[in-house]
Structures are given as C-alpha cells and as structure tokens.
Amino acid sequence: MKKILIISFCVFSMLTISCSKTYEFRAPVDPAAANLSKPANNTQCLEVDKVKFEWNKSDNTDTYTITIIDLISSATVTQNTSTNTVEITLTKGKPYSWQITSKNKSTSKTAKSEVWKFHLSGAADSNHAPFPAEIIAPKNDTTVSAGSIELSWKVSDVDVGDTHKFDVKLDKTNATTVICTDQADTKKTITLTAGVYYWRVIAKDNNGNHSESGVYKFTVQ
Prior knowledge:
Immunoglobulin-like; 2 domains; flat; mainly beta
C-alpha cells in the first residue's frame, strides 16, 4: 500500500510540473518589402539573351515572386524563387516594368516592392519612346461623380533630356475620340455626364517617338 501511495505521488507531481509549464505563442511575422537593384529604374537594358534581375533580401521572407509586364502588350511573366536574383528571357525592343512580392510561409500577408521600368534594347539606341503613361486617376474600373472630372497621369523616359506632350482620347466606346492634343500638362479637367467612359493617353517626346497607355475604363454616376 505504501508503494502505491509513493508511485501515485510521483505521478501526480510529474503531472503538476508538466501542467505548470507555459508555452510562448509566437505570432506570424509579416514579410518586408524588397528593395530593387537591377535593372535600374527608367534605364536602357543591354542584356543579350536573358535579363538578370536583382534585389536586396528582405526580412522575414521565405520566397519571392517576380512580376514582369510588357508595357506595350500588357503580357505578364511571373516566376517564384527563394533567392534574390533570377534570369528571365524577354523580347528585345520593348519597355517593361517589374516588381517583387515577398512571402512568408507562416502568414498569408505579402509585401510588394516599388514598380521599376526599363527598356530592353539589346543594343545601344540613341533615343527611345517614353514609357507608356501611367494612369493616376480615375483608376481603371472605378466610379466617380458626374460633373467636373480631372484626368491625370504621369510619364517617365530612359532619355532624361526629352520633353513630352500628350494627346488624350476619351469616349463611350473605344477611346478613339481626341479631346486634347499636344498638351504639356499631365492632367486634363473635363465635364462628363453619367455613363461608362473609356480613355487613353498618348505620350510623345521631342524626337518624334510616342507610346500609348492602353485603354482604361471608369463609370460616371
């Protein structure tokens, strides 16, 4: 009987010690955004076959997803990697944008880097078309109130010394109606009634080169 009491006491003691332990809960840590390195922003890239993309390693990150967009056709290339560099074959003679998304397997949250642009020339060119205008407002598929509406955009160029002018097209069908030409400002105010509108911006430089933003849509109500 005495042995049974001793064994029971030992078991009880072990359970008490085990239950008294505290376990620290560690919340998932969100990944940090990567800092892009190469190709540099708004530059001409002279890679022969493959473009080498590089960025700084970001904190709390297990994997990266690189997203590359052809700024003429909007075709998108994505690739996952666990390193901070990757080589990808692209078509020469086109402008591209690229961005890195940082991911951590312990959380569904991600972090996105800045978006950089470059022109893949393949050979040194004396001059380039400006990058397609980036639409600021109204954003694609958004809704705005009827009345005075400001259209705004921004543009960048490999050729730092170039000057730019803009044509804006807007209508309710396919953005072919010109509402202004050779405008130096990157905004245009227009009065619109209710309806669905389509618009685009043509960016032109002083060397006769031009690029189009693509068609964007917004609703006025």
